TrEMBL record:
The keyword Nucleotidyltransferase does not apply. GO terms for molecular function: DNA binding. This is AcrR family transcriptional regulator. Gene3D superfamilies: Tetracycline Repressor, domain 2. Pfam families: TetR_C_29 (PF17938), TetR_N (PF00440). Residues 85-104 bind DNA. Residues 29-65 are annotated as: Disordered.
Amino acid sequence: MLSLFTLEQGRASEFGFYNFALKAYERNKRDGGGEMNDSGEHGEKKKSRRPSQERTAQRDPERTRAAILEAATREFAENGMGGARVDAIAERAGTNKRMLYHYFGDKEQLYLRVLEEAYVGIRTAERALHIGDRSPEEGIGELALFTWRYFLQHPEFLSLLGTENLHRARWLRQSVRLKELHSHLIGELTDVLEQGKKQGVFIETADPLHVYLTIASLGYFYLSNQYTLSTIFGRDLIEPTHLNAWEKHIVHVTLTSIKR
Protein backbone atom coordinates (compact mmCIF):
# COMPACT_ATOMS: atom_id res chain seq x y z
CA MET A 1 0.00 0.00 0.00
CA LEU A 2 1.33 3.42 -0.92
CA SER A 3 2.31 5.78 1.87
CA LEU A 4 0.12 8.86 2.15
CA PHE A 5 2.93 11.14 3.16
CA THR A 6 6.49 11.85 2.27
CA LEU A 7 8.65 13.28 5.05
CA GLU A 8 7.91 16.77 3.76
CA GLN A 9 4.16 16.18 3.58
CA GLY A 10 4.19 15.16 7.24
CA ARG A 11 4.54 18.86 8.05
CA ALA A 12 1.14 19.58 6.50
CA SER A 13 -0.64 20.17 9.80
CA GLU A 14 1.71 23.05 10.62
CA PHE A 15 0.51 25.15 7.69
CA GLY A 16 -2.93 23.75 6.89
CA PHE A 17 -2.98 21.14 4.15
CA TYR A 18 -4.04 23.28 1.21
CA ASN A 19 -1.51 26.05 1.79
CA PHE A 20 1.25 23.52 2.29
CA ALA A 21 0.32 21.30 -0.65
CA LEU A 22 -0.08 24.23 -3.00
CA LYS A 23 3.41 25.43 -2.09
CA ALA A 24 4.78 21.94 -2.70
CA TYR A 25 2.91 21.83 -6.01
CA GLU A 26 4.45 25.13 -7.01
CA ARG A 27 7.97 24.00 -6.18
CA ASN A 28 7.54 21.00 -8.45
CA LYS A 29 6.34 23.05 -11.42
CA ARG A 30 8.14 25.51 -13.62
CA ASP A 31 7.26 28.93 -12.25
CA GLY A 32 8.35 32.19 -13.83
CA GLY A 33 7.28 34.43 -10.92
CA GLY A 34 10.49 34.51 -8.88
CA GLU A 35 11.40 32.83 -5.60
CA MET A 36 8.84 32.33 -2.85
CA ASN A 37 9.45 34.12 0.43
CA ASP A 38 8.50 32.75 3.87
CA SER A 39 4.92 33.99 3.61
CA GLY A 40 4.36 32.20 0.32
CA GLU A 41 4.35 35.41 -1.73
CA HIS A 42 6.53 36.02 -4.73
CA GLY A 43 9.64 38.06 -4.20
CA GLU A 44 11.31 40.27 -6.78
CA LYS A 45 9.70 39.96 -10.19
CA LYS A 46 11.66 38.83 -13.18
CA LYS A 47 12.61 41.29 -15.84
CA SER A 48 10.68 41.45 -19.09
CA ARG A 49 11.62 38.84 -21.64
CA ARG A 50 14.13 39.90 -24.27
CA PRO A 51 13.37 39.37 -27.98
CA SER A 52 15.85 36.49 -28.06
CA GLN A 53 13.91 34.75 -25.29
CA GLU A 54 10.66 35.17 -27.23
CA ARG A 55 12.27 33.67 -30.31
CA THR A 56 13.34 30.70 -28.18
CA ALA A 57 9.74 30.24 -27.02
CA GLN A 58 8.55 30.31 -30.62
CA ARG A 59 11.06 27.61 -31.55
CA ASP A 60 9.80 25.36 -28.73
CA PRO A 61 6.01 25.81 -28.78
CA GLU A 62 5.19 22.63 -26.84
CA ARG A 63 7.39 23.67 -23.95
CA THR A 64 5.87 27.15 -23.96
CA ARG A 65 2.31 25.77 -23.98
CA ALA A 66 3.15 23.44 -21.10
CA ALA A 67 4.68 26.26 -19.07
CA ILE A 68 1.63 28.45 -19.63
CA LEU A 69 -0.75 25.64 -18.62
CA GLU A 70 1.21 24.95 -15.45
CA ALA A 71 1.29 28.63 -14.53
CA ALA A 72 -2.40 29.06 -15.35
CA THR A 73 -3.34 26.04 -13.22
CA ARG A 74 -1.58 27.63 -10.25
CA GLU A 75 -3.10 31.06 -10.84
CA PHE A 76 -6.68 29.82 -11.34
CA ALA A 77 -6.41 27.45 -8.36
CA GLU A 78 -5.25 30.30 -6.13
CA ASN A 79 -7.49 33.11 -7.35
CA GLY A 80 -10.41 31.60 -9.24
CA MET A 81 -11.57 32.58 -12.70
CA GLY A 82 -12.45 36.15 -11.76
CA GLY A 83 -9.35 36.90 -9.71
CA ALA A 84 -6.75 35.29 -11.95
CA ARG A 85 -4.67 37.73 -14.00
CA VAL A 86 -3.26 37.09 -17.46
CA ASP A 87 -0.20 39.21 -16.58
CA ALA A 88 0.51 36.98 -13.59
CA ILE A 89 0.12 33.80 -15.64
CA ALA A 90 2.52 35.05 -18.30
CA GLU A 91 5.04 36.07 -15.66
CA ARG A 92 4.83 32.73 -13.87
CA ALA A 93 5.34 30.94 -17.20
CA GLY A 94 8.34 33.06 -18.11
CA THR A 95 6.68 34.39 -21.26
CA ASN A 96 4.46 37.33 -22.22
CA LYS A 97 0.78 37.94 -22.86
CA ARG A 98 1.24 37.97 -26.62
CA MET A 99 2.47 34.38 -26.58
CA LEU A 100 -0.34 33.36 -24.21
CA TYR A 101 -2.98 34.80 -26.54
CA HIS A 102 -1.22 33.23 -29.52
CA TYR A 103 -1.47 29.71 -28.08
CA PHE A 104 -4.75 29.86 -26.14
CA GLY A 105 -6.82 32.71 -27.57
CA ASP A 106 -7.98 34.46 -24.40
CA LYS A 107 -8.35 34.02 -20.66
CA GLU A 108 -11.61 32.06 -20.89
CA GLN A 109 -10.24 29.60 -23.43
CA LEU A 110 -7.14 29.12 -21.28
CA TYR A 111 -9.28 28.48 -18.21
CA LEU A 112 -11.31 25.86 -20.08
CA ARG A 113 -8.10 24.18 -21.23
CA VAL A 114 -6.85 24.10 -17.62
CA LEU A 115 -10.11 22.47 -16.52
CA GLU A 116 -9.90 19.88 -19.27
CA GLU A 117 -6.30 19.02 -18.46
CA ALA A 118 -7.19 18.66 -14.78
CA TYR A 119 -9.82 16.07 -15.66
CA VAL A 120 -7.53 14.37 -18.16
CA GLY A 121 -5.00 13.95 -15.36
CA ILE A 122 -7.30 12.12 -12.96
CA ARG A 123 -9.09 10.08 -15.64
CA THR A 124 -5.78 8.95 -17.18
CA ALA A 125 -4.48 7.87 -13.78
CA GLU A 126 -7.74 5.99 -13.11
CA ARG A 127 -7.37 4.02 -16.32
CA ALA A 128 -3.94 2.87 -15.21
CA LEU A 129 -5.54 1.16 -12.19
CA HIS A 130 -7.17 -1.52 -14.39
CA ILE A 131 -9.78 -2.16 -11.71
CA GLY A 132 -11.47 -4.70 -13.99
CA ASP A 133 -8.44 -6.99 -13.65
CA ARG A 134 -9.07 -7.40 -9.92
CA SER A 135 -11.84 -9.05 -7.97
CA PRO A 136 -14.94 -6.81 -7.79
CA GLU A 137 -14.37 -5.90 -4.14
CA GLU A 138 -10.68 -5.20 -4.68
CA GLY A 139 -11.42 -3.13 -7.78
CA ILE A 140 -13.91 -0.84 -6.01
CA GLY A 141 -11.66 -0.59 -2.96
CA GLU A 142 -8.69 0.36 -5.11
CA LEU A 143 -10.68 3.07 -6.89
CA ALA A 144 -11.76 4.49 -3.52
CA LEU A 145 -8.17 4.55 -2.25
CA PHE A 146 -6.87 6.09 -5.45
CA THR A 147 -9.49 8.88 -5.54
CA TRP A 148 -8.85 9.91 -1.93
CA ARG A 149 -5.09 9.95 -2.40
CA TYR A 150 -5.36 11.83 -5.68
CA PHE A 151 -7.40 14.53 -3.94
CA LEU A 152 -4.73 14.76 -1.23
CA GLN A 153 -1.91 15.05 -3.72
CA HIS A 154 -3.70 17.48 -6.05
CA PRO A 155 -5.34 20.27 -4.02
CA GLU A 156 -5.30 22.42 -7.15
CA PHE A 157 -7.82 19.98 -8.69
CA LEU A 158 -10.25 20.48 -5.80
CA SER A 159 -9.80 24.24 -5.99
CA LEU A 160 -10.62 24.26 -9.71
CA LEU A 161 -13.72 22.14 -9.07
CA GLY A 162 -14.87 24.59 -6.42
CA THR A 163 -14.40 27.54 -8.76
CA GLU A 164 -16.28 25.92 -11.61
CA ASN A 165 -19.17 24.91 -9.37
CA LEU A 166 -19.49 28.50 -8.20
CA HIS A 167 -20.03 29.34 -11.87
CA ARG A 168 -22.47 26.42 -12.29
CA ALA A 169 -20.17 24.67 -14.79
CA ARG A 170 -20.45 27.60 -17.19
CA TRP A 171 -17.16 26.79 -18.93
CA LEU A 172 -17.16 23.03 -18.42
CA ARG A 173 -20.36 22.73 -20.45
CA GLN A 174 -18.46 24.10 -23.44
CA SER A 175 -15.98 21.20 -23.45
CA VAL A 176 -16.29 18.56 -26.15
CA ARG A 177 -13.61 16.35 -24.57
CA LEU A 178 -15.03 15.54 -21.16
CA LYS A 179 -17.96 13.29 -22.10
CA GLU A 180 -15.62 10.73 -23.64
CA LEU A 181 -13.32 10.81 -20.62
CA HIS A 182 -16.12 10.18 -18.15
CA SER A 183 -17.93 7.59 -20.24
CA HIS A 184 -14.90 5.31 -19.90
CA LEU A 185 -14.97 5.66 -16.10
CA ILE A 186 -18.66 4.81 -15.87
CA GLY A 187 -18.23 1.97 -18.36
CA GLU A 188 -15.45 0.36 -16.36
CA LEU A 189 -17.33 0.80 -13.09
CA THR A 190 -20.41 -0.78 -14.66
CA ASP A 191 -18.41 -3.83 -15.74
CA VAL A 192 -16.93 -4.30 -12.26
CA LEU A 193 -20.32 -3.96 -10.57
CA GLU A 194 -21.96 -6.38 -13.00
CA GLN A 195 -19.23 -8.93 -12.31
CA GLY A 196 -19.82 -8.51 -8.59
CA LYS A 197 -23.56 -9.01 -9.04
CA LYS A 198 -22.99 -12.21 -11.00
CA GLN A 199 -20.75 -13.50 -8.23
CA GLY A 200 -23.36 -12.65 -5.61
CA VAL A 201 -21.05 -10.11 -3.96
CA PHE A 202 -22.89 -6.86 -4.77
CA ILE A 203 -26.57 -5.96 -4.50
CA GLU A 204 -28.57 -5.80 -7.72
CA THR A 205 -29.33 -2.10 -7.30
CA ALA A 206 -25.65 -1.06 -7.12
CA ASP A 207 -25.33 1.90 -9.50
CA PRO A 208 -21.97 3.01 -11.00
CA LEU A 209 -22.71 6.73 -10.71
CA HIS A 210 -23.85 6.36 -7.09
CA VAL A 211 -20.69 4.43 -6.26
CA TYR A 212 -18.45 7.10 -7.74
CA LEU A 213 -20.40 9.93 -6.09
CA THR A 214 -20.01 8.17 -2.74
CA ILE A 215 -16.25 7.90 -3.19
CA ALA A 216 -15.74 11.44 -4.50
CA SER A 217 -18.05 13.17 -2.03
CA LEU A 218 -16.48 11.54 1.02
CA GLY A 219 -13.07 12.81 -0.04
CA TYR A 220 -14.08 16.20 -1.41
CA PHE A 221 -16.26 17.25 1.52
CA TYR A 222 -13.64 16.27 4.08
CA LEU A 223 -10.83 18.25 2.42
CA SER A 224 -12.89 21.22 1.24
CA ASN A 225 -14.27 21.80 4.74
CA GLN A 226 -11.20 20.84 6.74
CA TYR A 227 -10.73 24.23 8.41
CA THR A 228 -14.31 24.77 9.57
CA LEU A 229 -14.75 21.15 10.66
CA SER A 230 -11.42 21.13 12.53
CA THR A 231 -12.42 24.34 14.33
CA ILE A 232 -15.96 23.23 15.18
CA PHE A 233 -15.04 19.79 16.48
CA GLY A 234 -11.66 20.65 17.96
CA ARG A 235 -9.76 18.02 15.99
CA ASP A 236 -7.01 18.65 13.45
CA LEU A 237 -8.43 16.64 10.56
CA ILE A 238 -5.24 16.94 8.52
CA GLU A 239 -3.10 15.10 11.06
CA PRO A 240 -1.78 11.91 9.40
CA THR A 241 -3.59 9.65 11.88
CA HIS A 242 -6.95 11.23 11.03
CA LEU A 243 -6.26 11.12 7.29
CA ASN A 244 -5.38 7.43 7.45
CA ALA A 245 -8.49 6.69 9.50
CA TRP A 246 -10.69 8.56 7.01
CA GLU A 247 -9.11 6.67 4.12
CA LYS A 248 -10.18 3.38 5.69
CA HIS A 249 -13.62 4.83 6.39
CA ILE A 250 -14.12 5.78 2.72
CA VAL A 251 -13.31 2.24 1.58
CA HIS A 252 -15.52 0.70 4.28
CA VAL A 253 -18.54 2.93 3.57
CA THR A 254 -18.26 2.48 -0.19
CA LEU A 255 -18.08 -1.31 -0.06
CA THR A 256 -20.69 -1.66 2.69
CA SER A 257 -23.17 0.37 0.65
CA ILE A 258 -23.12 -2.13 -2.23
CA LYS A 259 -22.30 -5.50 -0.64
CA ARG A 260 -24.93 -8.13 0.02
